[in-house]
Amino acid sequence: MIRVGIIGATGYAGQELVRLLAGHREAEIVWYGSKNQTDREYSRIFQNLFQIADDKCRDEDMAALASIADVIFTATPQGYCASAVTEEILGKAKVIDLSADFRLKDPHVYSQWYGMEHRGSAFLGEAVYGLCEWNRELIRSARLTANPGCYPTCTILAIAPLLKEKLLEPDSIIVDAKSGTSGAGRQASADHLFCEVNENMKAYKVGSHRHTPEIEEQLSRAAGEPIRVTFTPHLAPMNRGILVTAYGKLREGVKEEAVREAYEKYYSSEKFIRLLRTGEYPQTKWVEGSNFADIQFEIDERTGKVIMMGAIDNLVKGAAGQAVQNMNLMFGLEETEGLKAVPMFP
Fold it and tell me: What is the pLDDT, as a whole number, of residue 112?
Protein backbone atom coordinates (compact mmCIF):
# COMPACT_ATOMS: atom_id res chain seq x y z
CA MET A 1 0.00 0.00 0.00
CA ILE A 2 1.10 3.54 -0.74
CA ARG A 3 1.29 5.48 2.52
CA VAL A 4 -0.27 8.90 1.94
CA GLY A 5 0.04 12.08 3.97
CA ILE A 6 -2.13 15.12 3.33
CA ILE A 7 -1.16 18.55 4.58
CA GLY A 8 -4.11 20.90 4.37
CA ALA A 9 -6.57 18.04 4.78
CA THR A 10 -9.34 20.26 6.16
CA GLY A 11 -9.73 22.48 3.09
CA TYR A 12 -12.05 21.68 0.21
CA ALA A 13 -9.31 20.15 -1.96
CA GLY A 14 -7.88 18.27 1.02
CA GLN A 15 -11.28 16.79 1.87
CA GLU A 16 -11.76 15.80 -1.76
CA LEU A 17 -8.42 13.99 -1.65
CA VAL A 18 -9.61 12.05 1.40
CA ARG A 19 -12.91 11.19 -0.31
CA LEU A 20 -11.22 9.93 -3.46
CA LEU A 21 -8.46 8.03 -1.67
CA ALA A 22 -11.07 6.25 0.47
CA GLY A 23 -11.95 4.35 -2.70
CA HIS A 24 -8.36 3.78 -3.83
CA ARG A 25 -7.28 0.13 -3.57
CA GLU A 26 -3.54 0.86 -3.38
CA ALA A 27 -3.41 3.83 -0.98
CA GLU A 28 -3.76 4.33 2.76
CA ILE A 29 -3.91 7.75 4.43
CA VAL A 30 -1.54 7.89 7.41
CA TRP A 31 -1.59 11.62 8.16
CA TYR A 32 -4.39 14.19 8.10
CA GLY A 33 -2.47 17.43 8.47
CA SER A 34 -4.22 20.61 9.55
CA LYS A 35 -2.94 23.96 10.79
CA ASN A 36 -5.98 24.76 12.96
CA GLN A 37 -7.64 21.40 13.73
CA THR A 38 -4.82 19.42 15.36
CA ASP A 39 -6.04 16.51 17.55
CA ARG A 40 -9.64 16.85 16.35
CA GLU A 41 -11.27 13.78 14.77
CA TYR A 42 -11.37 14.26 11.02
CA SER A 43 -14.92 12.95 10.63
CA ARG A 44 -16.18 15.55 13.11
CA ILE A 45 -15.10 18.20 10.61
CA PHE A 46 -16.48 16.35 7.57
CA GLN A 47 -19.32 14.11 8.70
CA ASN A 48 -19.65 12.59 5.23
CA LEU A 49 -16.50 10.66 6.18
CA PHE A 50 -17.86 9.30 9.49
CA GLN A 51 -16.71 5.68 9.96
CA ILE A 52 -14.55 6.13 6.86
CA ALA A 53 -11.85 8.56 8.06
CA ASP A 54 -12.02 8.66 11.85
CA ASP A 55 -8.35 9.33 12.56
CA LYS A 56 -7.36 12.54 14.35
CA CYS A 57 -5.81 15.51 12.60
CA ARG A 58 -2.12 16.13 13.09
CA ASP A 59 0.02 19.20 12.56
CA GLU A 60 1.68 20.33 9.32
CA ASP A 61 5.19 19.04 10.04
CA MET A 62 6.28 17.99 6.57
CA ALA A 63 9.66 16.68 7.70
CA ALA A 64 8.07 14.36 10.27
CA LEU A 65 5.49 13.21 7.75
CA ALA A 66 8.17 12.31 5.19
CA SER A 67 9.53 9.70 7.61
CA ILE A 68 6.30 7.67 7.49
CA ALA A 69 4.77 8.47 4.08
CA ASP A 70 5.55 7.47 0.52
CA VAL A 71 3.80 10.50 -0.95
CA ILE A 72 2.80 13.87 0.49
CA PHE A 73 0.00 16.00 -0.90
CA THR A 74 0.20 19.68 0.07
CA ALA A 75 -3.26 21.21 -0.31
CA THR A 76 -2.11 24.46 1.23
CA PRO A 77 -1.99 28.18 0.43
CA GLN A 78 0.84 29.53 -1.72
CA GLY A 79 4.17 29.70 0.05
CA TYR A 80 3.92 26.67 2.35
CA CYS A 81 5.34 23.94 0.12
CA ALA A 82 8.09 26.14 -1.32
CA SER A 83 9.28 27.01 2.18
CA ALA A 84 8.93 23.50 3.63
CA VAL A 85 10.23 21.11 0.97
CA THR A 86 13.88 20.03 1.25
CA GLU A 87 16.22 17.59 -0.44
CA GLU A 88 15.94 15.36 2.64
CA ILE A 89 12.14 15.27 2.33
CA LEU A 90 12.27 14.50 -1.40
CA GLY A 91 14.78 11.75 -0.66
CA LYS A 92 12.18 10.01 1.49
CA ALA A 93 8.80 10.82 -0.11
CA LYS A 94 7.37 12.10 -3.36
CA VAL A 95 5.54 15.43 -3.15
CA ILE A 96 2.46 16.56 -5.08
CA ASP A 97 1.79 20.23 -4.46
CA LEU A 98 -1.73 21.54 -5.10
CA SER A 99 -0.71 25.17 -4.63
CA ALA A 100 0.96 27.37 -7.25
CA ASP A 101 4.43 27.15 -5.69
CA PHE A 102 6.02 25.05 -8.44
CA ARG A 103 3.78 25.68 -11.45
CA LEU A 104 5.78 28.64 -12.78
CA LYS A 105 9.41 28.16 -13.76
CA ASP A 106 10.49 31.77 -13.23
CA PRO A 107 10.59 32.77 -9.53
CA HIS A 108 10.36 36.44 -10.51
CA VAL A 109 7.07 35.84 -12.33
CA TYR A 110 5.83 33.98 -9.26
CA SER A 111 6.78 36.91 -7.03
CA GLN A 112 5.08 39.37 -9.38
CA TRP A 113 1.75 37.53 -9.43
CA TYR A 114 1.66 36.05 -5.93
CA GLY A 115 3.21 38.91 -4.00
CA MET A 116 5.82 36.86 -2.15
CA GLU A 117 9.38 35.69 -2.60
CA HIS A 118 9.77 32.13 -3.85
CA ARG A 119 11.57 30.25 -1.08
CA GLY A 120 12.03 26.95 -2.92
CA SER A 121 13.55 28.08 -6.21
CA ALA A 122 16.25 25.38 -6.00
CA PHE A 123 13.55 22.83 -6.90
CA LEU A 124 11.85 24.73 -9.74
CA GLY A 125 14.06 23.06 -12.33
CA GLU A 126 13.02 19.55 -11.44
CA ALA A 127 9.35 20.18 -10.63
CA VAL A 128 7.06 18.68 -13.28
CA TYR A 129 3.84 20.39 -14.30
CA GLY A 130 1.25 17.74 -13.53
CA LEU A 131 -1.18 17.97 -16.44
CA CYS A 132 -1.25 14.25 -17.10
CA GLU A 133 -2.56 14.31 -20.66
CA TRP A 134 0.37 16.48 -21.79
CA ASN A 135 3.23 15.55 -19.42
CA ARG A 136 2.57 11.90 -18.68
CA GLU A 137 6.08 10.54 -19.21
CA LEU A 138 7.77 13.29 -17.19
CA ILE A 139 5.32 12.77 -14.33
CA ARG A 140 6.14 9.05 -14.12
CA SER A 141 9.69 9.78 -12.97
CA ALA A 142 9.01 12.92 -10.93
CA ARG A 143 9.81 13.43 -7.25
CA LEU A 144 8.01 16.78 -7.14
CA THR A 145 4.85 17.42 -9.15
CA ALA A 146 3.09 20.76 -9.44
CA ASN A 147 -0.62 20.04 -9.66
CA PRO A 148 -2.20 22.51 -12.14
CA GLY A 149 -4.76 25.11 -11.17
CA CYS A 150 -8.43 24.53 -11.92
CA TYR A 151 -8.87 27.34 -14.48
CA PRO A 152 -5.59 26.44 -16.25
CA THR A 153 -6.50 22.74 -16.42
CA CYS A 154 -9.76 23.38 -18.25
CA THR A 155 -8.34 26.20 -20.39
CA ILE A 156 -5.22 24.34 -21.51
CA LEU A 157 -7.13 21.16 -22.31
CA ALA A 158 -9.55 23.14 -24.48
CA ILE A 159 -6.95 25.16 -26.41
CA ALA A 160 -3.61 23.30 -26.49
CA PRO A 161 -4.32 20.87 -29.37
CA LEU A 162 -5.04 23.72 -31.78
CA LEU A 163 -1.88 25.59 -30.79
CA LYS A 164 0.20 22.44 -30.98
CA GLU A 165 -1.01 21.89 -34.55
CA LYS A 166 -0.48 25.57 -35.53
CA LEU A 167 -4.16 26.14 -36.31
CA LEU A 168 -4.63 29.33 -34.26
CA GLU A 169 -3.30 32.84 -34.60
CA PRO A 170 -1.21 33.00 -31.41
CA ASP A 171 -2.16 36.57 -30.41
CA SER A 172 -5.93 36.11 -30.77
CA ILE A 173 -6.96 34.06 -27.72
CA ILE A 174 -9.63 35.28 -25.31
CA VAL A 175 -10.72 33.11 -22.37
CA ASP A 176 -14.04 33.57 -20.59
CA ALA A 177 -14.26 31.26 -17.55
CA LYS A 178 -16.78 30.59 -14.78
CA SER A 179 -16.13 28.85 -11.46
CA GLY A 180 -18.18 27.57 -8.56
CA THR A 181 -17.52 29.09 -5.16
CA SER A 182 -15.50 26.15 -3.82
CA GLY A 183 -12.71 27.31 -6.13
CA ALA A 184 -12.06 30.16 -3.70
CA GLY A 185 -11.25 27.76 -0.86
CA ARG A 186 -12.81 27.21 2.56
CA GLN A 187 -11.63 30.34 4.32
CA ALA A 188 -14.20 32.91 5.46
CA SER A 189 -14.74 35.84 3.12
CA ALA A 190 -17.56 38.36 2.79
CA ASP A 191 -17.44 38.01 -1.00
CA HIS A 192 -18.38 34.34 -0.69
CA LEU A 193 -21.26 34.58 1.79
CA PHE A 194 -24.52 33.04 0.61
CA CYS A 195 -26.25 36.39 0.12
CA GLU A 196 -23.31 37.70 -1.90
CA VAL A 197 -23.12 34.71 -4.24
CA ASN A 198 -26.69 33.44 -4.56
CA GLU A 199 -28.66 34.71 -7.56
CA ASN A 200 -25.58 36.57 -8.79
CA MET A 201 -22.84 36.31 -11.41
CA LYS A 202 -19.80 38.53 -11.49
CA ALA A 203 -16.41 38.97 -13.06
CA TYR A 204 -13.47 39.34 -10.69
CA LYS A 205 -9.72 39.99 -10.83
CA VAL A 206 -10.19 41.18 -14.40
CA GLY A 207 -6.83 41.32 -16.15
CA SER A 208 -4.99 40.33 -12.98
CA HIS A 209 -5.95 36.77 -12.04
CA ARG A 210 -3.02 34.71 -10.73
CA HIS A 211 -3.71 31.83 -13.09
CA THR A 212 -2.94 34.01 -16.14
CA PRO A 213 0.85 33.39 -16.24
CA GLU A 214 0.31 29.66 -15.67
CA ILE A 215 -2.06 29.49 -18.64
CA GLU A 216 0.31 31.50 -20.81
CA GLU A 217 3.39 29.47 -19.86
CA GLN A 218 1.78 26.14 -20.68
CA LEU A 219 0.10 27.34 -23.89
CA SER A 220 3.44 28.81 -24.98
CA ARG A 221 5.03 25.39 -24.54
CA ALA A 222 2.29 23.79 -26.62
CA ALA A 223 2.62 26.42 -29.35
CA GLY A 224 6.42 26.59 -29.36
CA GLU A 225 6.22 30.38 -29.24
CA PRO A 226 5.12 33.06 -26.74
CA ILE A 227 1.38 33.19 -26.11
CA ARG A 228 -0.53 35.96 -24.39
CA VAL A 229 -4.20 35.55 -23.51
CA THR A 230 -6.98 37.79 -22.29
CA PHE A 231 -8.36 35.89 -19.31
CA THR A 232 -11.49 36.91 -17.42
CA PRO A 233 -12.81 34.71 -14.58
CA HIS A 234 -16.36 34.85 -13.21
CA LEU A 235 -17.88 33.59 -9.97
CA ALA A 236 -20.98 31.48 -10.53
CA PRO A 237 -23.65 30.65 -7.89
CA MET A 238 -22.84 26.94 -7.67
CA ASN A 239 -20.71 24.76 -5.42
CA ARG A 240 -18.56 23.07 -8.04
CA GLY A 241 -17.58 23.36 -11.64
CA ILE A 242 -15.48 25.21 -14.18
CA LEU A 243 -16.85 26.22 -17.57
CA VAL A 244 -14.43 27.71 -20.08
CA THR A 245 -15.43 29.34 -23.36
CA ALA A 246 -12.37 30.47 -25.29
CA TYR A 247 -12.13 32.27 -28.61
CA GLY A 248 -9.35 32.34 -31.17
CA LYS A 249 -8.83 33.26 -34.81
CA LEU A 250 -8.08 30.37 -37.11
CA ARG A 251 -5.09 30.63 -39.42
CA GLU A 252 -5.86 31.24 -43.07
CA GLY A 253 -7.28 28.17 -44.79
CA VAL A 254 -7.95 26.08 -41.65
CA LYS A 255 -11.14 24.06 -42.00
CA GLU A 256 -13.36 22.26 -39.49
CA GLU A 257 -11.89 18.87 -40.40
CA ALA A 258 -8.41 19.98 -39.34
CA VAL A 259 -9.70 21.26 -36.01
CA ARG A 260 -11.55 18.04 -35.28
CA GLU A 261 -8.53 15.96 -36.27
CA ALA A 262 -6.34 17.95 -33.86
CA TYR A 263 -8.58 17.18 -30.88
CA GLU A 264 -8.88 13.54 -31.88
CA LYS A 265 -5.11 13.23 -32.33
CA TYR A 266 -4.39 14.22 -28.74
CA TYR A 267 -7.50 13.11 -26.89
CA SER A 268 -9.23 10.19 -28.62
CA SER A 269 -7.45 7.65 -26.40
CA GLU A 270 -7.51 9.70 -23.19
CA LYS A 271 -9.58 8.08 -20.45
CA PHE A 272 -10.59 11.31 -18.72
CA ILE A 273 -11.22 13.57 -21.72
CA ARG A 274 -14.55 13.23 -23.47
CA LEU A 275 -14.83 14.81 -26.91
CA LEU A 276 -18.52 15.52 -27.17
CA ARG A 277 -20.73 14.68 -30.11
CA THR A 278 -21.58 17.33 -32.71
CA GLY A 279 -24.12 19.81 -31.36
CA GLU A 280 -23.47 18.93 -27.70
CA TYR A 281 -21.72 21.45 -25.47
CA PRO A 282 -19.92 21.07 -22.13
CA GLN A 283 -21.99 21.57 -18.99
CA THR A 284 -20.72 21.52 -15.42
CA LYS A 285 -23.55 19.27 -14.25
CA TRP A 286 -22.40 16.42 -16.50
CA VAL A 287 -18.91 16.24 -14.96
CA GLU A 288 -19.75 16.93 -11.30
CA GLY A 289 -17.96 14.63 -8.87
CA SER A 290 -15.84 13.07 -11.62
CA ASN A 291 -12.36 13.38 -13.09
CA PHE A 292 -13.70 13.92 -16.60
CA ALA A 293 -13.08 16.94 -18.79
CA ASP A 294 -15.73 17.47 -21.47
CA ILE A 295 -14.41 19.27 -24.57
CA GLN A 296 -16.13 20.68 -27.66
CA PHE A 297 -15.62 23.32 -30.34
CA GLU A 298 -17.59 25.28 -32.90
CA ILE A 299 -16.36 27.33 -35.85
CA ASP A 300 -17.91 30.70 -36.60
CA GLU A 301 -17.52 30.81 -40.38
CA ARG A 302 -18.66 34.44 -40.50
CA THR A 303 -15.80 35.73 -38.34
CA GLY A 304 -13.19 33.02 -38.95
CA LYS A 305 -13.01 32.27 -35.25
CA VAL A 306 -13.16 29.01 -33.35
CA ILE A 307 -14.99 28.71 -30.04
CA MET A 308 -13.24 26.21 -27.75
CA MET A 309 -15.20 24.91 -24.76
CA GLY A 310 -14.47 22.80 -21.71
CA ALA A 311 -16.08 21.77 -18.43
CA ILE A 312 -14.55 20.13 -15.36
CA ASP A 313 -15.27 19.70 -11.66
CA ASN A 314 -12.83 22.18 -10.12
CA LEU A 315 -12.32 20.02 -7.00
CA VAL A 316 -11.70 16.78 -8.93
CA LYS A 317 -10.04 17.19 -12.33
CA GLY A 318 -9.19 20.74 -11.28
CA ALA A 319 -7.52 19.71 -8.01
CA ALA A 320 -7.74 16.46 -6.00
CA GLY A 321 -8.65 14.08 -8.82
CA GLN A 322 -5.80 15.28 -10.97
CA ALA A 323 -3.50 14.98 -7.95
CA VAL A 324 -4.50 11.32 -7.51
CA GLN A 325 -4.04 10.79 -11.25
CA ASN A 326 -0.52 12.18 -10.86
CA MET A 327 0.13 9.90 -7.88
CA ASN A 328 -0.96 6.89 -9.90
CA LEU A 329 1.51 7.76 -12.65
CA MET A 330 4.34 8.44 -10.18
CA PHE A 331 3.88 5.01 -8.57
CA GLY A 332 3.32 3.02 -11.75
CA LEU A 333 -0.35 2.30 -11.08
CA GLU A 334 -3.30 2.21 -13.44
CA GLU A 335 -4.01 5.88 -14.13
CA THR A 336 -7.73 5.51 -13.40
CA GLU A 337 -7.33 3.85 -9.98
CA GLY A 338 -9.56 5.59 -7.44
CA LEU A 339 -11.01 7.83 -10.13
CA LYS A 340 -13.66 5.70 -11.83
CA ALA A 341 -16.67 7.45 -10.30
CA VAL A 342 -19.43 8.31 -12.74
CA PRO A 343 -20.48 12.00 -12.67
CA MET A 344 -23.30 12.73 -10.22
CA PHE A 345 -26.75 13.82 -11.41
CA PRO A 346 -28.91 15.50 -10.30
Answer: 98
147: left (phi over 0), alpha (psi -120 to 50) or beta: beta
Confidence of residue 189 (pLDDT cuts 50, 70, 90): confident
Whether residue 167 sits in one domain with residue 298: yes
Q: Is the pTM of this model over 0.85?
A: yes
- Catalytically annotated residue among 81, 132, 150, 154: 150
pLDDT digit string (tens) for 138-159?
A: 999 999 999 999 999 999 999 9
Kindly state whether residue 76 falls inside one of the protein's structural domains.
yes
Question: Which residues on neighbouring strands pair with residue 294, listed in sequence order?
Answer: 274, 311
User: Is residue 341 assigned to a domain?
Assistant: no
Say yes or no: 281 and 246 in one domain.
Answer: yes
What's 165's domain CATH number?
3.30.360.10
Residue 57 annotated in active site = no
100 and 230 housed in the same domain: no
Domain that holds residue 112: 2-126
Q: Would you call 136 exposed, middle or buried from its count of C-beta atoms within 10 A (0-12, 13-18, 19+)?
A: middle
Nearest to 242 by CA among 292, 192, 168: 292
